[in-house]
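Hi F.,

I've been meaning to write this up properly since the lab meeting, where we talked about keeping a consistent format for the predictions we share between groups. The idea is simple: the sequence comes first, exactly as it goes in, then the structure tokens exactly as they come out, then a line or two of notes. No screenshots and no reformatting. I'm using this chain as the first example so we have something concrete to point to.
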Amino acid sequence: MPNLGCPSLRHDAGSPLCVLVVDDAAELRLLLRLILEQAQCRTIFAADAAQALAWLANERPDLVLLDIGLGAGADGLELCAALKRTQGEAFPKVVMLTADDDPHTIALARTRGADGYVVKPFTPAQILGLVDSFDVWRLDPARRPPAFWPTLRP
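Output, unedited:
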């Protein structure tokens, strides 16, 4: 699967949104590639936290779509906390993309610095809407993206 790369710190109207997808499931990475191509995003794909960190050493995505369960090594919540600790609040924005809909995990994601949380299964329209809203925010930081957090069940 090709990685198109992302220009470092280039956040202008002429540059497509750059998205890093971190998920250990190859079929999900392929699905997200097909969806993100529709939105003309530049994409980077990583199968685990180590691979994501290696990419992040040289690339600067605008948005990270991050699974929680990444197999061996650090999980997505640990990676999210590390990104927020080293990159700060500006970029990248991190949206957890996971099958875990437990309210405790959702709350934990917030404390680790996640900017949103989408529960699998998702629809292409959900991902395209998320990408569109983050792209608008990237170009105009005064327009905060909408909250992408699930409604907690009682």
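Notes:
The chain is about 40% helix and 15% strand.
The mean pLDDT is 84.

If this format works for you, I'll send the rest the same way.

G.
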